[in-house]
């Protein structure tokens, strides 16, 4: 469900924001129906590398945010972006890699680095291949951090 779809069926002016004992914020209707459980994801204001982001996400997911349907990123919030994000670890990692410009994949054809595997595939099809064969373009992808989990 997209961020827009989450709120379409409800009168958002009547939502109630309730802080639970578990540390999550629950968005509820006046009738008491829970719409979302939202967790605040505090991002320390330091330079992060891939390992520190992976650790941060792992600690966050093992903490009280476990039951959250959505996450508010403190870095986004501080920049004026008040969207909520998918709480899956892979989604949170990718989101934070963008914040800190961490590139995890490279192109064997030219060495250019990218944030996602798909970016390398699209790049290879446009710059190194005569066809748009995604299966063949996978051969251009290499991981920059192969020993990381």
UniProtKB/TrEMBL annotation:
<dbReference type="GO" id="GO:0008270">
    <property type="term" value="F:zinc ion binding"/>
</dbReference>
<protein>
    <recommendedName>
        <fullName>C2H2-type domain-containing protein</fullName>
    </recommendedName>
</protein>
<keyword id="KW-0479">Metal-binding</keyword>
<feature type="domain" description="C2H2-type">
    <location>
        <begin position="105"/>
        <end position="132"/>
    </location>
</feature>
<keyword id="KW-0862">Zinc</keyword>
<dbReference type="InterPro" id="IPR036236">
    <property type="entry name" value="Znf_C2H2_sf"/>
</dbReference>
<keyword id="KW-0863">Zinc-finger</keyword>
<dbReference type="InterPro" id="IPR013087">
    <property type="entry name" value="Znf_C2H2_type"/>
</dbReference>
């Amino acid at each position: 469900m997209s961020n827009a779809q989450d709120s379409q069926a409800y009168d958002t002016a009547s939502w109630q924001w309730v802080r639970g004992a578990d540390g999550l914020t629950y968005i509820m209707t006046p009738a008491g129906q829970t719409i979302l459980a939202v967790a605040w994801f505090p991002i320390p204001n330091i330079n992060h590398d891939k390992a520190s982001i992976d650790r941060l996400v792992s600690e966050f997911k093992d903490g009280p945010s476990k039951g959250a349907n959505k996450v508010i990123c403190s870095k986004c919030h501080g920049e004026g972006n008040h969207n909520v994000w998918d709480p899956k670890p892979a989604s949170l990692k990718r989101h934070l890699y963008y914040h800190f410009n961490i590139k995890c994949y490279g192109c064997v054809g030219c060495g250019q680095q990218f944030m996602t595997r798909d970016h390398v595939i699209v790049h290879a099809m446009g710059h190194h291949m005569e066809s748009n064969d995604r299966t063949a373009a996978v051969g251009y992808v290499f991981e920059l951090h192969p020993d990381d989990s």
